[in-house]
Amino acid sequence: MKNRKTIHDFDLQPEYKFDYSKAVRGKYCRRLMREGANVVVLEPDIAHMFRNSAAVNDALRSLLDVSEKTRRLTARPSRA
């Protein structure tokens, strides 16, 4: 069995090298806020109850549905 000499070249290819001295913090933040990106951070105890964002959306939709139905039941009649 021959011993193979392994050569590890850990240098990145030129297209993957990035000059961090020219980086800008929050470069796209204003655009995201202008476009209406909504990011909600859940508390850890609440986030533990949902497996993904679709589950959170389903729970909120069902809460809104129940709220809408309850509002119709308890609405006071308006006097003319």
Order of helices and strands: HHH
Radius of gyration: 27 Å
Count of alpha and pi helical runs? 3
**Could you give the count of β-strands?**
0
Please bin the fraction of helical residues. Answer: 40-55%
Low-confidence stretches: none
Please state roughly what percent of the residues sit in beta strands, choosing from under 5%, 5-15%, 15-25%, 25-35%, 35-45% or over 45%.
under 5%
Q: Please state the structural category.
A: mainly alpha
Cα-to-Cα separation, first versus last residue: 100 Å
The average pLDDT score comes to 82
The biggest beta sheet is recorded as: none
Task: Walk me through the structure.
By secondary structure, the protein is mostly helical. The protein is elongated and about 95 Å long. 41% of the residues lie in helices and 0% in strands. The chain has a domain at 27-74. It has helices spanning 29-35, 44-47, 53-74. The chain is built from 3 helices and no strands.
